Amino acid sequence: MGRECFIYKIPTKDLLPIYYYYLNNKDDGEDSEVVENRIVENGEDDRSVVKNGNGEKIDTSDWLTYRNEEYGFEVKYPENLTIKDWTSIAHGWKLYLNIGKNKEIGDGLVNIGIMDNMNLRDYRYLAYAMYWQAGREADREIFDKALSDCIVLLQFGRHQQGRGMLIEQLIGIAIEALGQRCIFDVLGRNIDNITPGLLMRFQEQLEQLAAPADVISFEAEKVFLYDMVQRSFTDDGKGNGRVLLKGLPLVGSDWKSFLFDFATMNWPDRREVISRIDKFYEQADSATHKTLSELHKENSNLKQDDDSSLLGVLTPAFDRVIKLSFRLKVSRRALVAVVAILMYEKERGRYPESLNELVAAAYLEKLPIDPYSDKPLVYKRTDDDFILYSVGLNFTDDGGEPGKGRKGKVRQWADNGDAVFWPVQ
């Protein structure tokens, strides 16, 4: 038995909290049409006809439409089904809809819900569910849907970046990286079967996808430390004060300094500690606006704060986060370049001689710069394919030889080789 078709229209800004999934896998004795479900940015969809799993067109012009103004989405579904709101008895959900026969809460072909207090673990589950769904769709040769789901994953991840607490931004980086992997996997396995028209539409979607100005922002973490200062120091009414017992991690780095400062009564005051915090975060923010090649040449990793145990603990973590953000940035550029190269080959029957040729022919807006070398990503034609790579973590061009882990398995971001984006390893 197949599954019914439902078309979702969900504004991008409201995409994150919305879960949607299939429940029925069992045969209920009736034939059901298998049709793609679509997520469409900003609620725009000019296609009233969709295809089932056999590639046959199905007219959906007479289908019913459910609109939810509060959360800004709509669902289109066949007229032989009903949609019912079960929120009142669905614990942990702000909205829980069933589309199906609706004799009971579990009797739905599709459930659409918005979770109450969705946590980071739920984000992870949702991201992997979408990744696996895209892979399954590619296996069934529904390539437009697979690539569309990958785009949603990119949007999902970017929604979490450049704001909020650092852990949330790291989740965003991981989800976008999963979306990139999803796209590379679909293209790498199926490029011969993907039509030029579909690849062109996907390229346009990718180019229109808005990226946050900054992948990482430390502002929320800085405010958190300001709040800690507020609660850990006295206030003399002039913007200064003395440290309280719970503020000791902000003013000392080890037990010896604690004892010395205690014996000499030489604790840093409120203004001194705030100045340290400002200096630390200015250094971190400055590092995010340089390239890794510049940081490597300057040997300017974040400097350990020897006067504060708390800032000392944060230093290596922040340094790691900054480097992860650069991996994401170069992967974005590589993805755009790979799609442009594949598009060029689809239309002209050969791969370009260089990335400059892509720019000259308007397939690329600009050369993709590798932050590990401050030069364009390395592109080379091979006999019947091409290779595109970054010089990677060792800042050395290894001729496209990928790095490997301890067991000899290829790892894209190992420090003993190049980070190869194509061919997909």
Number of strands: 15
Q: Percent range for helical residues?
A: 40-55%
Structural class, please? alpha+beta
Q: Oligomeric status of the shown chains?
A: single chain
Question: What are the segments in which pLDDT stays under 50 over at least 5 consecutive residues?
Answer: 1-49
Portion in strands: 5-15%
Biggest β-sheet strands, sense, barrel: 4 strands, mixed
Biggest sheet: strands side by side, in what order?
Answer: 3-1-7-6
Radius of gyration: 26 Å
What do the pLDDT scores average to? 77
- The end-to-end distance, rounded to whole angstroms, is 36 Å
Helix count from the secondary structure assignment: 11
Listing every helix as H and every strand as E from the N terminus to the C terminus, the arrangement reads: EEEEEEEEEEHHHHHHHHHHHEEEEE
The best one-word shape is: flat
What does this structure look like?
The chain is α+β, with helices and mostly antiparallel strands. It contains eleven helices and 15 strands. The strands form five sheets. It has a four-stranded mixed sheet. The protein has a four-stranded antiparallel sheet with strand order 2-10-9-8, with no helix packed on it. The chain has a three-stranded antiparallel sheet with strand order 13-14-15, covered by helices on one side. A hairpin with a 4-residue loop joins strand 6 and strand 7. Helix 1 runs antiparallel to helix 2. It is flat, with a radius of gyration of 26 Å. The protein starts with 6 loop residues before the first strand and ends with a strand.
